[in-house]
Design a protein that fits this description.
Layout (H helix, E strand, L loop, with lengths): L1 H4 L33 E13 L9 E20 L2 E20 L2 E10 L3 E9 L6 H4 L6 E10 L19 E12 L2 E12 L2 E4 L3 E5 L2 E11 L5 E11 L2 E3 L2 E2 L4 E15 L2 E12 L5 E13 L3
Antiparallel strand pairs: 1-2, 1-17, 2-3, 3-4, 3-5, 5-6, 6-7, 7-8, 8-11, 9-10, 10-13, 11-12, 12-15, 13-14, 15-16, 16-17
Length: about 300
């Protein structure tokens, strides 16, 4: 189907660790319309190296991590009051090395296990009606506006006596609004979002850490290529997320940018690959790393 072929993509742009991607998840085409009843299964691998921590409350310096992350995800589209909607769930597993300084002493940790699971509900309220597969053949994407709510659950491996952790031991909620405009073979997308965090009451052996909301903005420029290929360049900026330990504020807030390049490659009907490159740039606090990922996606719709 012509319309569906443009949507053969992962919802996962790059998930390295749940604790590293709060600022900007550079995920293009998140609002693209899908026929009702479409399903996706996604499997992916990502590697990241550098300072990949987001929380400025951690009392460590000179972090150099090398992390390998494997993800499994499921997505399903459905009718939400006449408009297209999606639900997705992501489960990451990570392993890697942490090198850092704590109180002036060089430290090393080896971490492996599950990171925090993610769940998201999203729907489009402009320009993306809910259509069954047969009716979707006549649909042409123009202007789309949508909203999503993502929940990060504290299911990951967490040890209170350990400084870097795969899990965050707290809930996180991301509210996001976006708009997408198609101009011939180009798609331009913009997003604004706000992350909200609950307390971690078992931080470093019983301390409590809190974090202010983190605001983000993102822009994607996407180009459709022959044979259903597409390429995307994305940029995002995050600011905020100041941390407090036992009520005492830490000095800096997060100020960080991410740049990403993504290439989607259909390999045959209902199967596709996506290669992603991502670089994090730190201005004050936040991640400063380079990462790459490869994901495979299978899609089906029996309606």
């Amino acid at each position: 189907m012509k319309g569906v072929s443009n949507l053969l993509q992962c919802l996962i742009s790059l998930i390295v660790l749940n604790i590293t991607v709060y600022a900007q998840e550079l995920e293009p085409r998140a609002m693209s319309n899908l026929p009702v009843g479409t399903n996706f299964i996604v499997a992916g691998y990502g590697f990241a190296g550098g300072n990949i921590l987001m929380d400025p409350a951690l009392p460590i310096e000179d972090l150099d991590a090398k992390m390998h992350t494997f993800i499994a995800a499921y997505v399903r589209s459905f009718n939400f009051f006449g408009m297209s909607a999606k639900f997705d769930a992501v489960l990451p597993y990570a392993t890697g090395d942490w090198y850092y300084k704590y109180q002036g002493i060089n430290e090393y940790d080896l971490s492996n296990g599950f990171a925090d699971a993610r769940f998201r509900f999203s729907f489009n309220f402009v320009g993306a009606p809910a259509l069954v597969k047969n009716d979707f053949k006549e649909y042409k994407q123009k202007t789309i506006a949508g909203y999503s709510l993502q929940v990060v659950a504290p299911t990951g491996n967490y040890k209170s006596e350990q400084l870097p952790n795969l899990g965050s031991n707290r809930w996180a909620f991301k509210n996001q609004f976006g708009i997408s405009q198609t101009i011939k073979k180009w798609i331009i997308e913009g997003y604004v979002a706000l992350w909200i965090f609950t307390k971690n009451t078992d931080f470093l052996n019983g301390n409590t850490v809190e974090q202010d909301p983190l605001a983000t903005v993102k822009l994607h420029i996407i180009r459709s290529l022959p044979k259903r290929f597409w390429i995307s360049f994305g940029a995002g900026y995050g600011y905020g997320g100041k941390s407090y330990v036992n009520g005492e504020p830490r000095e800096a807030v997060i100020s960080t940018m991410r740049l990403g390049l993504i290439v989607a490659m259909p390999i045959k009907a209902n199967h596709s690959l996506k290669l992603s490159g991502l670089s994090g740039i730190r201005f004050k606090k936040g991640p400063d790393f380079d990462a790459i990922s490869l994901s495979y996606q299978f899609m089906w719709n029996r309606k």
